[in-house]
TrEMBL record, chain A:
Alphabetically ordered keywords of this record: Membrane, Transmembrane, Transmembrane helix, Transport
Highest taxon in the source lineage: Bacteria
Similarity-based family: Belongs to the binding-protein-dependent transport system permease family.
UniProt entry tagged with the keyword Ribosomal protein: no
Residue span, ABC transmembrane type-1 domain: 176-372
Provenance organism: Parasedimentitalea denitrificans
Protein name, as recorded: Peptide ABC transporter permease
Subcellular location, record wording: Cell membrane
Lineage summary: Bacteria, Pseudomonadati, Pseudomonadota, Alphaproteobacteria, Rhodobacterales
Chain ranges passing through the membrane: 46-68, 172-205, 225-255, 303-330, 350-371
Automatic annotation (TrEMBL), chain B:
Classification via PANTHER family: TRANSPORT ATP-BINDING PROTEIN
Protein name: ABC transporter ATP-binding protein
Signal peptide: none
Keyword Manganese attributed: no
Organism superkingdom: Bacteria
Amino acid sequence: MTQLPDGRYLDDAPFDAQASLQQLERRDLDAPNWVLIWRQFKTHKLGLISGIFLLFSYLMLPFAGFIAPYTPNERHPDHLYSPPQSVNWYHEGEFIGPFIYPMTSEANLETFQWEFVPDTDNPAALEFFCEGKEYRLAGLIPTDTHLFCAPGDATIFLWGSDRLGRDVFSRILYGAQLSLTVGIIGITVSFLLGISFGSIAGYFGGRIDWCINRVIEILRSLPELPLWLALSAAVPSNWGPVAVFFIISVILGILDWPGLARSVRAKFLSLREEDYVRAAEMMGAKPGRVIRKHMLPNFMSHLIASATLSIPAMILGETALSFLGLGLRAPAVSWGVMLNDAQNLASIEIYPWTAIPMLPIIIVVLAFNFLGDGLRDSLDPYQH
Amino acid sequence: MRPLLSVDNLSIGFGTGTPVVSNVSFEVQPGETLALVGESGSGKTVTCRSVLRILPRAARIRSGTIRLNGSNGSKELTSLSERQMRNVRGNAISMIFQEPMHSLSPLHRIGNQISEVLWLHGRMREPAARKIVLECFERVGFPDPERAYDSYPFELSGGMRQRAMIAMAMVAKPDLLIADEPTTALDVTTQAQVLGLMKELQRDTGMAMILVTHDLGVVANMAEQVVVMHKGRVMEAGPAEPLLRSPAHAYTQQLFDAAPAIPAHPQLAPELPQDDLILQMKSVSKTYSMRAGKSWQPETKIHACRGIDFSLQRGKTLAIVGESGSGKTTAARIALGAELPDEGGEVLFRATPQSNPIAVHQMSRAARTAFQREAQMVFQDPYSSLSPRMRILDALCEPLEIHGIGSKSDRRDRAEKMLKLVGLGPDMLLRYPHAFSGGQRQRLSIARSLMLDPSLIVCDEPTSALDVSVQEQILRLLEEIQERENLSYLFISHDLAVVARIADEVAVMRAGLVVEQAPPDTLFYNPKHPYTKALIAAQPEPDIDRPIDLKLVASGAGSPSSWPEDFRFSDSMIPSLVQVEPGHKVRCHV
């Protein structure tokens, strides 16, 4: 600092009046949008963990049969309502690796209940990559190798067995295959409908917009649960489980699109006012090009976030329908179908492990919500 | 004399990054105005907000002291508790923000929002507060204080809202008022009136003021002390008069040179030739009908523009100047064919002197495509005119792609050439728009408009979102390109001084009508219309000897019905545009 005679202060540091025009002001923002979103998303720990968990869950789906010790409809008539068995490492203070105590069942003639007693004298070491019932890996390759199973006549029910002596743990893994994909298929249907109707309404406006909006309002005003019931009751009962599953996902998607179409329309209306959209129109771009090249890329990330937030609703919808016995039906396995068995209050009281399929539902729905939340927070990476 | 506020060696930083404000010191004497001058990113707003400790959450005061010697003793503001700080805010120091649209709550009546200051600081109950607020309203120039007290913010214009903000800041009689770009969002004439009001209030109450601004013209009219900031450092600080008369620092000099000015000694300009017109608009009007609030009332008609006759000579620039809502943007959109004029209006465009004119108001699809190659637009906001998802290369090549011109490598070559023309390097092609500064983006947007080799460019306030020094560079660039490519510009602006250097002819618009039209020199030499006179008078000049003439502003800036008899107009009776000199037309009754 120098002081001039008239009381002025001047900065001494050299000053370049022609600060280079070639310099980038925000080098950190010079990246494609998804890189910036990822950079921001990484800081959202809860969302990141949820994302990794969900990724892991979906990657596991094709290998569910390999991880599960039993196939979903394999019955153990001697082990009805067997309680969960724990995997132990130490037998009488000695390390012998992962093993279980075989269960023996006895009928209690006073209460008419099966009572299970672990045989603590004969530890049965778990076998790995062992042979079991045959299943198809990823639905294609027939194989009979399982990750782990109990030796000989011993059983391994990590989360207990149900009323027919089927392993709950294995059934949860198999159930995930349907319960998790129902959301994806449903959201695809609702995405296609929502984006096309929403963008038509938002871009063209006028009479089309009016019609689409009224349809949305009518669909939104229908009570959801009875409508589901009616639609799924219309599914012929002689259809196979896969066809029923598919039609249920589509029904869920068809009822979900109005919400998405509304947010697409709102986003379109606000994007239309952006100068780059107006610029493209003035250059002579046709509506299709404006929508594809300028508008969709700029709100795709918003759509993905809102889709992530509506998948849980689909999963819960499937669960609710199947729980009521109107969705998927046995022999298909889904979490809702499993919970259908837990409808009886008395059985939950005596065999609480039959309600365990609630846990994966809660965890997956929470994970989707955290993930969607994290995505939504990182959507606008340009603000800072 | 003990200073009212002394900021000493203040440094502020975000997170662990380099400080955004470093070693800033200044003092404010009681009753004096200190101007913090700088461009965006210079740290001036962060500095003034640190005084009230309302910094963004990630920002930390790293060092320095802020001492307030107010009417209730001396306080060190950086070490006060939040509770004590609340007592200072609004009471000893109050603040006016830049955006009058966003700084009032839309759900509460104006009067209640302002009385809240008095309730909060525990001085009085509602009836007493109401009386004081009404007095204050009268003081800041509300014509009907009672009505203003009971109205909601959306019922008031921008200028009136800013007056309400001033009332809110003044009502508790603070020792110090911090005004953060209080007039940047306002029209020139409103700006002049609000600045005049602030100065008057300051004289009456004897409070001190910190005025944050980027405009040296405002400084010359308002401040006694000036602090010039650049990139978080003080470049030059001291009394306003010597600083503005002979800037000592290179940066101050640069700001000074860049400030747009109305020529001091204008001369009568010759009439423009009218032999090779690229664009002609003949009696163009545009009426929007708005549904009334109640279904049994008839629709109200809004005249966005009325009876516009423009002709633009090839290679020249026609500027349309007016406040927001004057219809200048509508006129430009009609010229580009983006909107159709009312029945009877005609827009003719000649791509080359020999070619047949295209009737822009009734184009077929093929004619529209041909027209779009010849006429392009540069937008106001450089931050929204480039899609954030597209690399610069894709954005520049897009117009060629739409019209199916050239191969991929041809397009790339052309993009590189245009980038060079606007002064950017070819390595910028693969970057994303958000990496660039506002000025660079406006260059990119100009480059994109040049890609199709057009003959007419419509510039919609291309510099009003930019800093003064950048504005100067962009104007120079536009002039260079015009000379080289023989382009014609239709230039929209709210700022007469900006237009003064670039335009060959200026049309001043008000309420959808052209009130005066002439070459700029003629307009400055011999302005006839009271509104033009007000616009010229309201222009803040960085020259300390030319203060704003508020009387002249007030007489022309009011509604058209308050103008002198000769110029007055209403919906039913509109005087016609009369030629008073060759090439100089004024709307008046002869």
